[in-house]
Design a protein that fits this description.
The chain has about 290 residues and is an alpha/beta fold. The protein has helices at about 45-50, 85-90, 120-130, 165-175, 190-200, 205-215, 225-240, 255-270, 280-285; strands at about 5-10, 15-20, 25-30, 60-65, 80, 95, 100-105, 105-110, 115-120, 135-140, 145-150, 155-160, 250-255, 270-275. The protein has nine helices and 14 strands. A hairpin with a 4-residue loop joins strand 10 (about 135-140) and strand 11 (about 145-150).
Amino acid sequence: MPHLIAVDWGTSSLRGARLDEAGRVLEEKTAPLGILNVPNGDFAGVFAAQFSDWMKPPGTRCLISGMAGSRQGWIEAPYVACPAGPDELAQHLHWIESGRIALVPGLSDEQADVPDVMRGEEVQIFGALRLAGLSDGLFVLPGTHSKWATVRGGRVVGFRTFMTGEVYGLFAQHSILARTLELDAPLDESAFLRGVARAANGEGLLHNAFGVRALALFGRLSPAPSASYLSGLLIGEELQQQKLPAGSEVIAIGASTLTARYGLALKQRGVAVRTFGAEATWAGLRALQP
C-alpha cells in the first residue's frame, strides 16, 4: 500500500498527516487555512504550499475529507445516501488528479422529507470503528453542529444534526444572557452538571435558558459559572433527544475540551463513554484508501 497523505480540510482550519504503509503517523501539520480563509479561492495553490513535499514520493496518494468537498470548497463532491460504509464512500471518491488526489464525499440522510448532511464526520466515525474494533454503535461528534450517528454492520444507517455549539455562541454573544456570562472562565463542573440536570425538567430550552438571567438577577449564579451552566443546559437538551438507556455506551469523537463535557453529561445519565480525537480521522481516511 502506498504512502497516504490524509487531509481534514474544514471551515476554519486545515490539518494533514503523512502516514506510512502500515497507517502510522509519520508527521502532522495544521494551518488556519479553512475553506473560508483560502486566498482568492486558490485551493490548488494552498494545497501545493502545504503538501507538495509530502506528495513527491512516487505512488503517494492524498485523500481529503471535510468541507473542501462542499459547494463552497475546492470542488463539490456529491453526498452518498445512508446507509453507507467505507466501501460506498470509496466508490464515490471525487478525483481532482486521477490516482493521486481525491475528495471524500459526505453523507446524507432523509428524515420525514427533510434532509440532513455531514462532511468529515463520516470519516471520523469509520476511523473510530476501526480503532475500537467495533461494527455497531452510537456516536456523537460534538461541535458547532453536533452529529449523532447510528452504525450497524459497519455502516452509518442514520444520523441527526443539532446546532448546539452555534446556539451557544448566539446566546452567549448576541442575547441578554451575554451580560451575565464570563465566557473565558474555566469549566465549572458543578454548574455544568446542574444545567444538564435542569434540561431534563420537561420545560424546554426556551424557558430554561431565561433561567440563566433570572438566577443571576437573584444572585444565585455568578458570571464565572454561568457559561458552564448554559453549556450544560444546551448539551442536556441535546441529550434529551437521544435514546440513551442506562448502561449503554456512546463513542465521542472530537476536541478533548468538547468530548470531556459530553462525557460528564453522559456519565450523569449512566451512559459509558469512549473518546477519540484526530487519530480517528487518519484511521478513517486510511480505511478509504483505494
